Amino acid sequence: MLNKTVKNKIITKFKTHETDTGSSEVQIAILTHEVNELSKHLKTHRKDFSSRRGLIKKVSQRRRLLHYLERENKASFEKIIQELKIRYKNKMPAILKEENDVREEESVDTHSDEEETTE
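and the corresponding structure tokens:
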């Protein structure tokens, strides 16, 4: 859990406007700090499964916020990823993946048709 001074420092660093306290950028920064603190705790207290569960919840929440920010504001997403040094691997939703697979199959079919006509 963050104390007020640390939380206020994070908010002032990542806020998007003067009265901002809950934008995606601020929430991601706060969650990142909490994740780092919980990771340090779990290195020394390996059997603290309650804290491990809390860590997983915070990482999941941060991942959802990052996915949202990537869709809505790509520039802000890139900036926050660099500043916080977050490794982010975008896992495409299954629906989009299927659409891409269909498109790839169609492009393969058109290329094979072209090869047959040239022979």
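(Above: one complete record from the training split.) The first helix runs from residue 4 to 14.
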